[in-house]
Amino acid sequence: MKGLVAPFYLNFRVRFFISDPNSLQHEQTRHLYFLQISSDIREGRLQCPLSAAVVLASYAVQSELGDHSQSCLPGYLSKSHFLPEQDDDFLSKVEDLHPQHKGLKQSEAELCFLNTARTLELYGVELHAAMDSTSVPLLVGLASSGVAVFCNMICSSFFPWGNIIKISFKRKRFLVHLKRKHVSPFLPDIMDACKNLWRSSVDHHSFFSSSRSSRSPKHNYSSRQAYSKLITQHLGRGGPVCQRVVGGMVWNPVLQRSLSSEYLETKSLPSRSPPNTPNWRSPRVRHGISKPRPSSVELTNELEDMTEGEDVFYTYRVSVGSSRGSEGGESPQRGCVYECECLSMLCVCVCVFLCVFHLSPCVCPQPPLGDGDLLLVRIAPDHEGRFGFNVKGGVDQKMPLAISHVKPESPAGRCEPQLLEGDLLVLINGRDISEHTHDQVVMFIKASRESHSRELALLIRRKGVWGWVCERKGYIKQLFPSSPGQAERASTLEDSMRQLERGLQSGTLSFHFENLYRRKPGLLLGCSRLPENMEKNRYKDVLPYDVSRVVLQDQEDYINASHITVRAPAFTENLVSAQGPLPHTCTHFWQCVWEQQTHTIIMLTTLTERGRTKCHQYWPHPAEVKEYGCLRVSCHSEECTLAYVTRCFTLTHTQRGEERAVTHLQYVAWPDHGVPDDPSDFLQFVNCVRDRRKGQETLMVHCSAGIGRTGVLITMETALALLEEGRPLYPLDVVRALRDQRAMMVQTTCQFQFVCEAILRVYKERQKRSSTP
C-alpha cells in the first residue's frame, strides 16, 4: 500500500468462471457472476463485440428496470453506462431490443445474460503478460479448460489441462510441461509476475479438476451388482422405466401393479430465451427425438425441458441384461453412458416407489444381496423435532454422504431397521442427493419435519457383511467381522495384496476402518488440556497423548506434536507428527525442529483453504531472514512445481553459533475435505521424501491438524518400505499402530481408501515391470 493515497476500496470478485453458468445452483451466485461480468465489460477488462454488447446491455436493463413500459421515453438509457466507449447509436439499439424481453424476471434475464456472455472469446479467461523465447509479446490465458496463448489477441496455442503433466517456474521462466516430453516456455517480465502466473495456474488447475470430479460421481462394481439384482427382483424385464431423473422426482399419477410400464418425470423451470437471442443451444433429446431448445413463447406451456448443464436421463427401453446402445441415433460411446446411468436410475425408480407409497417390506425378509444392500429406514422426529443422527460428506466436501453418529436413545437409534454409523445415504424422501452439498442435505432432512406425515424416509446403502435371522416380530441384522484375523493372515506379500483388493471391492476394509477406535482407550490427554496449553492447540479435539507427546526442553515444554515410531522386521522409522503452527507457536515449532535434529520438514497443506486459515507461514520468503526466539531462519531458494514446493533453509542457533541445513517440502495439490483424484503426484512426492531421508533421521510432518493427510503420508511411506522388503502389508494394522501414538491418524474413510488404492497401484505396477522381459 506504499505510495497509494486513501481512500482504499475492497472489491469482491469472482475468480473462477465455470464454462456453463446454468450449472450454478444458487440464484445469488448467478447474480454475483452477472455483476462481475457486467463490471468487466463496462470497465474494459472483458472485450466484447458490439453486436453481443447490445444484447448483453438489453438483458442488464431488463434485470435492473424490469419490463419496458410506455412511460420509457426515447433516451431513457442516456445516463446508463455499459461500455468503456459507447455512443448514442449503441444506446438506441439497446432501447429497441429491451421491449422484446418482456416477461423475463430478474433472475431469468441475468441467466440469459450469462448464457450470452459465455460465448465471448475471453469469457472466464485470466490473462497474464509474457513473452516467448524470441521475445514476442504474448498473453497467457488461464481458463476452465486449460491454458491458452494469445498473440495480438488471437489464440495461437491451447493446452488442455488433461495434456499438462507439470507446471513450474524458475526465476523469470514459466514452463508448461506437456505429454510426449514437450515443454512450452514463457517469459513474464519480472520474477514476481512469473510466480503469480505459476500460482494462479496451480489454483485454476486444482479448482477445475475438483469441479469435474465432483460433477462425475463414480459407480463402483458392487453398487452396479446391487442395482442389477434389485431391478431383476422388483421390475421384471423390458419396457420403458424412466423418462428423466434430475434433482427432485415426481411419479406419474397412473401407477398400477407393475413398475415396468411407468416412468419418472421432473418438473423444472428452465431458463428462458427471448427471440433474437444468440444461439448457444445444444441439441436436446426426448423420447429418442432431437429437439431444439424452445423460445420463451413455447415455454409458457412447456415446463419439462431442462436447463443446460444438468444431468439428464432419457427414456431407455432395454432389458436388464442387454448391452444395447442408446436410441435415437446416438453414438455407441454415448450409448454406453446412457446404459450405465439408466441402470442406476432403474433402482432409483423402485426406491421412490417405496418412499412415496409407503409399501411395507415382506414380513420375512429375503436373503441379503450382499455388501452394499439398500434398506429403507423411516424415522419420525421426537417432540423437540429431532431425529437423533448426524451426517457427513457432500459434493462440496468431495465425500460420500454417510451417517456419522446415531444417538442411542433417539428416534434414529430406536427405529427398525436400525440406522447405523457408516450407512451411505442414497435418497432422502425420494430425492436423489448424490449431487447436493452437505448444507443442502441437512436442509432436506430438517424440511421433512414440516411435511404432512412428519416422517423422514431414508434409502441407505449398508456397508459390511451381514447375517440375517428371521424372528416373529421382524428380523435382526447381526454383524460379524470379516477382516483378516490372525488365522487368516497371509504369509506372503502377494496374498496380502489379494486380500487388500478383495476388501476394497467388497467394502469390508472400509467398514472395519470405520469401526477402528479413533483414540486408543486408556491413554490420557491431560497435559494438552491444561489451561496454559489450550490456546496452543489449533483444534480443541485434536490433542497429543501424554505418553507420546513431544516435550520441549524449556519451561514451557508443550507443543501439539507427537512422536511416531514405525517398526518393522527390517527397518524402524522415526517421525514427529505436528499440527500446523499458529502465529504464537512458531517459536515452539522451530525449537522442536532443532531439538529433534530434523533436517526435513514435510508440509501437506496450503496456508489457506476455502477461505480458512490452515497454517501460519512460519518461514521467511527467499532471501529474507526471520528470528524465532534464539533460532534464526534464512530462506535461500524456493523451487515450485505443479504438485509441490521445495525450499532450502538455514537454521542457526544464535546463542550457540551452530547452524543446520533444513529442507522444506510443501505438497500443494491436495484438495481440502477430500483426496486427490489421481495418486500419481502424491506418489511422486512420497518418493521424493524418501529419497531425501538421511538414515535414521527424524522427519517433521504436519498438515493443519497433523492427523489426516499426515497419517496418509506416513502410512504410504511405511507401505512403500514394506513393498520394497517384500513383506505382507496390512494398511489397517499400520493405521492402528499410528493411532496408538496419535489420535485419529488417517482421519476419514476416503483418505484410507485413497492410500489403499495407491498401495495396490504401486504393487501392480511393480509386478508389471518385473514380468516384462
Short description:
The protein is built from 18 helices and 30 strands.
Protein architecture, described:
With 773 residues, the chain is α+β, with helices and mostly antiparallel strands. Helices cover 30% and strands 22% of the residues. It is built from 18 helices and 30 strands. Helix 6 (221-234) packs across helix 8 (332-357), helix 11 (493-506) packs across helix 18 and helix 16 (708-725) crosses helix 17. The chain is globular, with a radius of gyration of 30 Å.
List the helices and strands and how they pair.
Elements (H helix, E strand, L loop, with lengths): L26 H16 L7 H16 L22 H10 L8 H12 L8 E6 L5 E6 L3 E6 L2 E7 L3 E7 L2 E6 L3 E5 L4 H25 L5 H14 L15 E2 L12 E2 L18 E3 L2 E3 L4 H4 L32 H26 L15 E7 L9 E6 L4 E8 L4 H4 L9 E5 L2 E2 L5 H10 L8 E7 L3 E6 L2 E6 L13 H14 L1 H7 L16 H4 L14 E3 L6 E11 L2 E8 L7 H10 L4 E4 L4 E2 L2 E2 L11 E4 L2 E10 L3 E10 L4 E10 L12 H13 L6 E4 L5 H18 L5 H9 L9 H23 L2
Parallel strand pairs: 22-30, 23-29, 23-30
Antiparallel strand pairs: 1-2, 2-3, 3-4, 5-6, 6-7, 8-9, 10-11, 12-17, 13-14, 15-16, 15-17, 18-19, 20-21, 21-22, 24-25, 26-27, 27-28, 28-29
Helix pairs in contact: 1-4, 2-3, 2-4, 6-8, 11-18, 16-17, 16-18
